[in-house]
C-alpha cells in the first residue's frame, strides 16, 4: 500500500477537555487552551473537541462554545468538532454556530459530524432528540450542507446567517463502515475513531477508498484516523503515565465512567485478566514509549493503513505529562527510524 512518510503526515490533536479527580471543570478547559497554544508552536495541524453528554469526566459537551474559546486563544491552529453529533441538533442551529465561528476565525474551523448520540438514551431524550433520528443522518447532513450554499432566492426561504456562502470543511466521523461509505459516496474527508474502535478500522478505510467519488471538495480520498499515543522521556515513564488511560477504559468496561484517575505503579493489581484483554482489544491502536519507540510504532501504523493524517489522543493525569507527551510526539515526527525499528 502506498503511504506518505511519517515526517510528511500532519499530526492533529483530539481533546475532550478531560476532567481529573480533584480538578474543576474550569481548570480542565484552561488546560485545553494551554495545550492548544503549545500545539500551535509545535506544529500540530488541528485540534478537535468532541460532543459527549452526561459524563462527569468530559467537559466538551457544549462543543461549539468551547471551540470559540480555543480558537480565540490561538492564531493558526485549526479548531474543529470531532465531532458534533448531528442527530442531537437542528441542522440550522449547527450551520449558524459554525457560520459564526468561521466568520470570527476564517479558514480555521472544521465541522466534523457523527451520527451517534454521544450519550445514553435518557440523555438523548433530555436533548429533545428522537432516539431514532440517527437513521435520518444522510438527510440531516444534506440539509446542513445546503445552509452553507450561496443564497438563492428562488430555492431557499430559510437562511443560515452567518453561515450562508461560507466554505467550512465538513468531515464525516465514524467507528463503523456506515459513515465511511457515505463519506466516500459524497467525496468528503473521513475520520475513523481508531483510538477506541480498532476492530472495524481496516474495513472502514477499505470501503471509503473503494466507493470514493471525486467531488468539488476532494478529487481523491483523504482519511484521518484517531490513535492513542503516550510519550515520555523513558519507556518506563510512558507506561506509568499510560496507566491513567487504561484505568479510563477499564471504567468504561465496568460501566462506571468518571473522571481521569492518577496513574498507578502496577495496573495488573487493578484489573482481572479478562478485563485486561478487553481493554487491550479497545486500545490496539495505542502507542506507548519514548520518542524513538512511538516514532517507530506510528510509522508502522501509517504504512499499514495508508492514512493521510493522524488525530492523536494523549491521555495523562498530570497536565505537564500531557504537554511533554505531545511535545515528544511532535519531535517523533521527524525522528530517524532505523530499519530494525520499522520491521
Automatic annotation (TrEMBL):
Residue ranges of every copy of the Luciferase-like domain listed in the record: 23-308
Q: Which SUPFAM superfamilies match?
A: Bacterial luciferase-like
Question: GO CC terms for this protein?
Answer: cytosol
Which GO molecular function terms does the record list?
Answer: oxidoreductase activity, acting on paired donors, with incorporation or reduction of molecular oxygen
Under Gene3D superfamilies, the record lists: Luciferase-like domain
Listed InterPro entries: Bact_Lucif_Oxidored, CmoO-like, Luciferase-like_dom, Luciferase-like_sf
Family per record? To bacterial alkanal monooxygenase alpha and beta chains.
Name assigned to this protein: Luciferase family oxidoreductase group 1
Q: Which organism is it from?
A: Sinobaca qinghaiensis
